[in-house]
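Quick entry, no commentary yet.
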Amino acid sequence: MRKPSGIVAERGFSLIEMLVALVIMSLSLGVLYQAATAAVRNVAVASEYTQATMLAESILAENSFVVAQQVSLSGAFKDYVWELSSWPVPPADVGSGKAAPEEALPVLGVPLQFLQVRVFWAGRSDEREVELLTIVPLRELRP
């Protein structure tokens, strides 16, 4: 058997095709890297919000009632600064939605207070904040 005379061209990838493939692959990897970085940053921010919310909830749990009107407290825990404040809940006339007289106290004659907790911390570019609000009874301390 004789081989045909002439040059047999073997088909492969040219240098330009390889360069184009490498450029496409590098662009794709760059986009994936940016997406992964953004996902990690979002997880960190979500973790900060979770910790701040847990701190605010624990402060509210510690203060299930207040002993004075218009309480104002503040403090810090790790990277978080918190503020606690209260103010009276105005008694409302259920039928009309207007404020009722002072003697019409809600819930079995127990005056109520709004209780607000605000937690602050430094974010990457600006200050972040979580705020929780609830209503608690006003009680007197008995010896």
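second:
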Amino acid sequence: MKVKDYLPINLIAFIAFGFVMINSAFSQNLNSLYLETSEKIVRRALVDQIGYQMLGELCEIGPRLSGSDQSIKAIHWAKKKMEYLGFDKVWLQPAMVPKWIRGDFESARIVNSKTLNGRALEIAAFGGSVGTDRDGITAEVVSVNNFDELNSIGNSIKGKIVFFNRALDLGETNTFSGYGNAVNQRTQGAIEAAKYGAAAVLVRSVTTKHDKVPHVGVMYYVDSLPKIPSAAIGYQDADFLYEAIRKEPSLKINVRLSCKTFPDVQSYNVIGELIGTEKPNEVIVVGGHFDSWDKGCGAHDDGAGCIQSMEVLDLFNRLNIKPKRTVRCVFFINEENGVRGAIGYANYADTSKEIHYAAIESDRGAFTPRGFYVDADSAVIQKIESWLPYLQKARIEWVRKGGSGVDISFIKNIKAKIGYVPDDQRYMDVHHSANDTFDTVHPRELELGSAAMAILTFLLSEEGIE
């Protein structure tokens, strides 16, 4: 039964009239120019799909690990593209970055088993790992789920390979939370295992996709402990290895890695801007990190974020929007294994006479828009939240307090640091792996992200957040 069946006719009319009046008052508070511009931005992004085309061009270059030849090739591509798009100013900002190369071999196979000799396991070295000699390391394997378990068995792991077996918690609805609760095995595992004399480390891939593809990323050492090889193992092979050593504890595997670290090399942030018509000294940064891991082509992480940032400026040009404040696109180099680009830009921002007004970072993949996290005081957050009627044109559902992004987090004395948040359910399927390819990007999802960032940038420029 319906509620209205029990209400007097005059009361129903009164309630309906109230809703009309509220909606009418709310609509009157909206700026028709902002609504019209927001709609134009979304339509132009979705119809033209220029950002999607540019991402395709970028992905043809291949992976963009800091210090690699492909990274430099991509940097020069980006500079030429910004110039071609007619930005008012384009330049390269130097930064020295690490150079780590995977090399020509990495493998793991079972070599001492009653039934599994020769069985290969899919692995990939973590960024920064030391390698082995050509013969590799052969040892028994010890499985642990966390550092407490590792500490409890202590010196019994000396000379063995430690297998960190904790999976991303699939019960977490936020995949970034699940990732954050498991990733310390990758970043700190070699340090913790080396304390007890381990020979090497394997880590179950931190992913939501249960295939054999290893998911890589940076790992760390400390000078006070031996540096031991560290590698990811694909999810299905992690399951296989766990069952194999449970049934046969004396089983041994051979691990071979040819990765190596070289001296730092010259690289660059890529920067382009549209100069503000009224407040050119107040800068709104939009950006992402231009480096990627050497698996896949970094389509989602973070080619998409960079292209979306560049397309913000291009959408302004296509629609003849002249921002009051300067809008600056920054492709930060070396976020994945050193944040040298972010540090360099932050130093520039700190010493420049410019006022860094706000910054938006996109580094969560090219999926459907959901919201914006804002690192600012409550009044600023409320102001941005009041723009939801415009942002909803690009399917933005919420604005709330939260972290922004690694690269822009280094910028000091700024009114708002903002992180663009698309849907996260598929991101960890591709993150840091050979799955991160252009064909996994849907053009409409990518373009809606560009549009959402462009609308927010437009409002920041025109309306301000004071």
